[in-house]
Amino acid sequence: xxxxxxxxxxxxxxxxxxxxxxxxxxxxxxxxxxxxxxxxxxxxxxxxxxxxxxxxxxxxxxxxxxxxxxxxxxxxxxxxxxxxxxxxxxxxxxxxxxxxxxxxxxxxxxxxxxxxxxxxxxxxxxxxxxxxxxxxxxxxxxxxxxxxxxxxxxxxxxxxxxxxxxxxxxxxxxxxxxxxxxxxxxxxxxxxxxxxxxxxxxxxxxxxxxxxxxxxxxxxxxxxxxxxxxxxxxxxxxxx
Length: 240
Fold this sequence. Notes:
Radius of gyration: 18 Å
Shape: globular
Order of helices and strands: HHHHHHHHHH
């Protein structure tokens, strides 16, 4: 039944305008980050790693949180006027929520891949000659996706209560900006909205070691379990 729910969510997104945001929004921080790198190339000497910090400065704290907010707001608001039908299906409300979280996670991962491709293209445009850190990029994208899924869990809950499209997106943007403060205080691995930027090593591509990644996975999994439990509790006790 869960696979049928996932397929239903996929079909709802097939011709949605979300794909326009998916294509355009990551391009903006890629351009800004590349220009910032090229204007400061004399002090940014680590080539790909320096370029990554400039890209993620704009991507992780501004554009990607907004994109996640848009994904979640659309996925929840598309059910307005249709919730009674959705919730009368022979599946638990927890399954409905998890299906929406899963499909959002897939979209976040695809966004991360698109961001990585833009990063690779930007490096070539900037004239970088060092070998591209493909392995590191893959790790950053995977862990960025994990952190993004935690954010998405919170955003889906907010969007189920707030029928406005813009307000949850604004909350996600504020959360992304707040991550700057937590990461600067070495608390990026505990604040929900900083997990994505922390996992993507936005401030320093060398800040996480194997032990740090292990802790990051544990924190993300714990948050996802708690968020799923909270959503299950709320969904089972409210009328839509």
